[in-house]
């Protein structure tokens, strides 16, 4: 497996409230993307706390991941712990009241991937037979599209497209959605924040992902989002199923 990632604050925002981390061990890659929200720098704090919490659990190897089932259990536990961490911090200081973050987390093995998410940061999977978004946005427009009240085209320009219905850290108990599937050599998994998907539609993203995975591809996607306004932070992590393990760049 090879992986590439980068986070960019965009053209308008003063700070980057996104966070990203990718770690690997002998058998797995753990990839994390988060998009914080809240006043002042609270969004920045929320996303960093969430990522750090999951990374800490991964580094402690608790519990061990050996298959899809155990990966799903691990992700549910890790995201729940991260939620508690962010929530408890938000209750301790007034400046952090109401802060929260999206999160999309993936465990990648040579034979399977497991993904957990909360919010509207997304995961896309491209393989030889299909290309699809494998997460469902926890957002107002996402719900309207799923219930047939809004078309995907209208969702892109809806005035309340940034309204999140579910976020990590805003409530005491929040359960992530979890998804697992097999994958094969040549497949690609993309994790990203809405700073990318608000500027590049699914079909265009598909055409870009047909290219060989590289840091240049990641940079091109960020550059394109910035050329189209760059009003939000932009963060991506790309994992490609290959036999040899590659180093990361960010």
Structural class of the secondary structure composition?
alpha+beta
For the record, give the distance between the C-alpha atoms at the N and C termini, rounded to a whole number.
Answer: 17 Å
**How many domain modules?**
1
- CATH fold label: Phosphatase 2c, domain 1
Major sheet attributes: 5 strands, antiparallel
Oligomer, anyone?
single chain
Mean pLDDT: 90
Radius of gyration: 17 Å
Instruction: Compute the number of helices.
Output: 7
CATH architecture: 4-Layer Sandwich
The helix content is 25-40%
Low-confidence stretches: none
Q: How would the global form be characterised?
A: globular
Order of SSEs: EEEHHEEEEHHEEHHHE
Give the strand tally.
Answer: 10
Instruction: Provide the spatial order of strands within the biggest beta sheet.
Output: 1-10-9-6-7
Quick one: CATH class?
A: Alpha Beta
Describe this structure in words.
The chain has 250 residues and is of the alpha+beta class. It has a single domain (2-240), classed as Phosphatase 2c, domain 1 (4-Layer Sandwich). 32% of the residues lie in helices and 26% in strands. The protein is built from seven helices and ten strands. The strands form two sheets. It has a five-stranded antiparallel beta sheet with strand order 1-10-9-6-7. A five-stranded antiparallel beta sheet has the order 2-3-4-5-8, with helices on one face. The relative contact order is 0.22. Keywords: Hydrolase, Manganese, Metal-binding, Protein phosphatase. Residues 2-241 form the PPM-type phosphatase domain. This is protein-serine/threonine phosphatase.
